[in-house]
Design brief:
Blueprint (H helix, E strand, L loop, with lengths): L5 H11 L12 H11 L8 H11 L8 H8 L5 H18 L2 H14 L7 H14 L3 H13 L7 H10 L4 H17 L6 H13 L3 H14 L3 H14 L4 H13 L6 H13 L3 H13 L8 H19 L14 H13 L3 H12 L6 H15 L2 H8 L7 H15 L18
Helix pairs in contact: 1-5, 3-4, 3-5, 4-5, 5-6, 6-7, 7-8, 8-9, 9-10, 10-11, 11-12, 12-13, 14-15, 14-20, 15-16, 15-17, 16-17, 16-18, 18-19, 18-20, 19-20, 20-21, 20-22, 21-22
Length: 433
């Protein structure tokens, strides 16, 4: 994460505001006393001549001669008011000389004095953190960034800088916890956390090689900013963390289809092959036809000749052989038989019939309840009955629970109004030369 450049920081500090320490010659004594009274500061008699000497040197054509005087003053055991004034002088001189090292000393002295105004405290803490960040003093950077953040500072991309101080110390869990707090607080305000923050957190979770953290943040990203890319990432993370059988894999692929997360020929190939193995000819035709329509599956692809064309030849006879309702199944029909018929009807977009067969399967002994509820939820979602779909997915547990949770998040997104998205405040721009 890039911190502010030295020159940008000098410009920013110049606009952050510093106490103008009035000159000390005799003709300015009245002005000095009024300024001290207004600011609540009282420079000690011992320090007054040193401040006067510094200001005199700063006023010459060679202001650099004031630097050793400022550094000497900062090194003394000063009272609070004197330390604050010394810090302000260091900031002012550092700005003149473009000496950020001197400015850092001034910032720290001002903060340590306890006399920094409430108006200046947020920015001063940020810049103290930024100096520490640039010097790779990560713990100090975290300390000052956190102080600035707690005081309401939200400029110069402080949020990612604060989170990054933990990753720089190889503390990924703590860094992601910090991201969670930052994003939650942004979302609780009038604006929504920007997508870039979710991506940054997701990337850091992936780099940690903790599968569960990655799955959590991929899902958070998709939940906040749904798209084919974000849902595809969340689904990939879920599949990485779970051992799914062929039936569960097909259920995931159906969710990918609903969320527009089938993006490559490989995705469509996997879906079609999984459906073909189960003789779900209608689903093979539906998914490969979609791939062709989107231009992802080309007309001369082997998928067309080896999977689509044979499935198309099977559709008419296959559909004609299907029982229209559970009571038409010969014999008692086991739970798995009923659910297999439900899968076939789902592929043919006979959603009401699919629900009826899934429900019949659930009523049979030895039923896989989670498979049945995922099937019912999927059929309702495909049909557009999102309320019924959500109720079905809420009943899912076990290894299918993450998939059901993603379905529920997607369903909530369909009715949610678009929130106002926060725009991260850009770092202070360097003036054109």
């Amino acid at each position: 994460m890039r911190f502010l450049s030295h020159f940008s920081m000098a410009v920013a500090l110049a606009t952050a505001g510093t106490l103008a320490v009035t000159a000390l010659p005799q003709d300015a004594q009245a002005a000095k006393k009024k300024k001290e009274k207004d600011s609540g500061l009282k420079i000690s008699k011992e320090v007054q001549p040193k401040v006067a000497a510094i200001q005199a040197a700063m006023a010459t054509e060679t202001p650099a001669t004031a630097k050793p005087l400022v550094e000497a003053l900062l090194a003394e055991p000063l009272a609070a008011d004197d330390r604050f004034v010394a810090g302000q002088l260091a900031i002012q001189l550092g700005g003149t000389l473009k000496d950020t090292g001197l400015q850092e000393k001034g910032i720290l002295a001002s903060l340590d004095s306890g006399k920094t105004s409430a108006e200046q405290l947020p920015a001063f803490n940020f810049f103290a953190g930024n100096f520490a960040y640039g010097a790779e003093r990560w713990a100090d950077a975290a300390k000052y960034f956190q102080a600035a953040y707690d005081l309401g500072y939200r400029a110069n991309n402080i949020e990612p800088l604060l989170a990054e101080t933990y990753f720089k110390r190889n503390m990924p869990a703590e860094g992601l916890a910090k991201w969670d707090t930052i994003i939650s607080e942004a979302n609780a305000s009038a604006t929504k956390a920007p997508e870039a923050w979710y991506r940054l957190a997701r990337d850091r979770a992936l780099a940690s090689k903790d599968k569960n953290l990655y799955a959590t943040w991929a899902t958070k990203w998709a939940g906040a900013y749904p798209s084919g890319d974000s849902w595809g990432d969340a689904i990939a993370a879920s599949r990485w963390t779970a051992q799914a059988d062929s039936t569960q894999n097909l259920e995931v692929l159906r969710f990918m289809k609903a969320t527009d997360a089938l993006k490559t020929t490989r995705d469509y190939k996997e879906f079609a092959e999984e459906a073909q193995r189960k003789n779900l000819f209608g689903e093979v035709v539906a998914v490969l036809s979609e791939g062709k329509q989107k231009g992802i599956v080309s007309a001369n692809s082997p998928l067309v000749t080896e999977l689509l064309a044979p499935a198309e030849r099977q559709v008419s006879a296959d559909r004609a052989s299907l029982p229209a309702q559970p009571s038409a199944v010969r014999g008692s029909g086991s739970s798995s038989v009923m659910m297999n018929f439900a899968d076939v009807w789902l592929g043919y977009k006979g959603y009401d019939k699919a629900v009826a067969f899934y429900e019949a399967g659930l009523a049979k002994p030895g039923a896989d309840m989670n498979r049945g509820y995922v099937g019912i939820g999927t059929a309702h979602a495909y049909a557009g009955d999102l309320a019924a779909a959500k109720q079905a997915f809420a009943k899912v547990s076990g290894t299918r629970a993450p998939l059901a949770a993603m379905w529920q998040t997607w369903i909530e997104q369909q009715a949610a109004p678009a929130p106002v998205v926060a725009t991260p405040t850009p770092a202070t721009a360097e003036p054109a030369s």
